[in-house]
Amino acid sequence: MDRILPVEDAEISAFAKKQFVKQGMQILEKATVKKLDRGQGTVTAHIEIGGKVETRTFDTVISAVGIVGNVENLGLEALGVKVDRTHVVVDRYCRTNVDGIYAIGDIAGAPWLAHKASHEGVMVAELVAGKNHVHTVRPDHIAGCTYCHPQVASVGLTEEKARAAGHDIKVGRFPFIGNGKAIALGEPEGMVKTIFDAKTGELLGAHMVGAEVTELIQGYVVGRMLETTEEDLMNTVFPHPTLSEMMHESVLDAYGRALHF
């Protein structure tokens, strides 16, 4: 890939990379591991970078590429359940193409998140119990959380995807260094970014990097579920001193009204 965290907003990805490099990590982008040679207590990697292959020796190699559905030996073929690239094909109610068979969680495809799987399990249980009205999972309303340091969290569209979808947008940003609670915690490195539709005020996406952003993101998730607008968020009173104040400031910044820059 051309950058780390490729599903995240490009600005957040760049910020996270900068922090990782500060911690001493070396990150190779647009690089491909062609071969691994196991040695006595070492592993030599053959890495293609810019068309050239170079070798580097490491103590340990962790290969973590993609997610494969555990669909073997379940009898799915005999039942005629449709499977696409190791994932069971389902509709928004997690129903397969075979009546009475449901699939939830990672086996049912992206997003591969525990909280998505849990909600799907509840929804399917309610359907089986005969409940008529259930809340389906909306992927664009599910927070993505990366538990690294600094943490990364997001919901909705990135700036790039919002523009590609044809939205005229307003973008707000607020840095952790401008927040008293972040400074008091010794966590001044981070950023909150919000993206709005300029015409309707709809919150299209929110993206964060920094301390405890995996907790903060739920505020924007609730906002999207309730179809909040920029006016609703600007008129909401956030407690002080808290990290959540940065969420307010980012919204204000999108409309040129930030208070604590």
CATH superfamily of the largest domain: FAD/NAD-linked reductase, C-terminal dimerisation domain
CATH C-level class of the largest domain: Alpha Beta
Low-confidence stretches: none
Task: Give the beta-strand count.
Answer: 10
Query: What string, H for helix and E for strand, traces the elements in order?
Result: HEEEHEEHEEHEHEEHHH
Strand order of the largest sheet: 6-7-10-9-8
Major pleated sheet: 5 strands, antiparallel
**CATH architecture assignment name of the largest domain:** 2-Layer Sandwich
**Helix count, DSSP H or I runs of 4 or more residues:** 8
Q: Gyration radius, to the nearest Å?
A: 22 Å
Global morphology: flat
Helix content: 25-40%
Number of domains: 3
Q: Which structural class best describes the helix and strand composition?
A: alpha+beta
Indicate the proportion of strand residues: 15-25%
User: Span between N and C termini?
Assistant: 34 Å
CATH domain fold name of the largest domain: Enolase-like, domain 1
**Could you report the average pLDDT, rounded to the nearest whole number?**
95
